[in-house]
Amino acid sequence: MIKVSIIGATGYTGQELVRILSQHPGVELVGLGTQSYANKKYSDVYPHFRRFVDLTCSEADDPALIAKADVVFLALPHGLSVPYVEKVIAQGKKAVDLGADFRLKDPQVYTEWYKKKGPTEKLLEQAVYGIPEIKRVAIQKTKLIANPGCYPTTVILALYPLLKEKLLDPRCLIIDSKSGVSGGGRGLRVGSLYSEVNEDLKAYGLPHHRHIPEIEQELSAIAGTEIKISFTPHLVPLTRGMMSTIYSLPLTTKTGKLEEVYRAYYEHEAFIRIYPKGEYPHTKWVQGTNFCDIGFSLDERTGRLVIISVIDNITKGASGQAIQNMNLMCGLEETMGLPKVALFP
Fold this sequence. Notes:
The strands form 2 sheets. The chain has a 7-stranded parallel beta sheet with strand order 3-2-1-4-5-7-6, with helices on both faces. Strands 9-10-8-11-14-13-12 form a 7-stranded mixed beta sheet. It has 12 helices and 14 strands. It folds into 2 domains: 2-125, Rossmann fold (3-Layer(aba) Sandwich); 151-313, Dihydrodipicolinate Reductase, domain 2, CATH 3.30.360.10. It is globular. It is α/β, with parallel strands linked by helices. Helix 4 (82-90) links the parallel strand 4 (71-74) and strand 5 (94-97). The relative contact order is 0.14.
């Protein structure tokens, strides 16, 4: 059994980690660290875990959290993970950071976008950007995972096959994304209150949303040329769920060719489903699962390709993908313990 601790266990992504890992046949939860609920039973913080997960929460900086674990998940806001990761790596353990601290390879870019000092270059060099469908081999060899952001997951998985095969014009990528409210975390904010969010739809983070450099970094590496995107995120009155609608210029007029490439890349991927022509995914169809569902439409009238990509922002967009990465790092079957059937209705 792999012994696991979670630092930041009482936020939404931390709770999702506990939900999945507590049912994982290859894992023993040994520590739950928190900044707000130390010395409380986890089932008192989240009563739906009563008689199921009754561990007592520790202070986030309790050294036992790292000492007794084989793998440490860090579900912390950006700027807080580095000291913990340094200790994890120094003790020869494995770390999966769900925050942004290790996603950007250029420390200056991180400082520019996050207004904080990032990790040292030496530590940054050890991190692998953890999209399993693209970087599986590197993930299996590392001890430090930079778990991707939720918006970047939808975008990168949707575009990877077509950019890799040079079937899109890399100069024209427009991304319209929508996220459920849980993406903003559990902290109390006016903008997340029910009466503020219900029956409302708003754009935010314009024009410099922090996921932009992450998306551009990874897409540029895939395409082999610099890519700049237009990206507009929106908040929608859902608890969980995320959809990205991507507008692009294809370098082929054949829908069959596009579908052939998608299926060649993803046919054997356990957590990606490509929809047939004329069908498009709903967020409801992936709720609570680790799937990314993708559909597309080639508009012959305008010559544009529209790609629809959906995930559960807390699962495939955060905690589920983090556990998928852990499975690979630890030599387990990649899909072990991960939910595959959506919650419906």
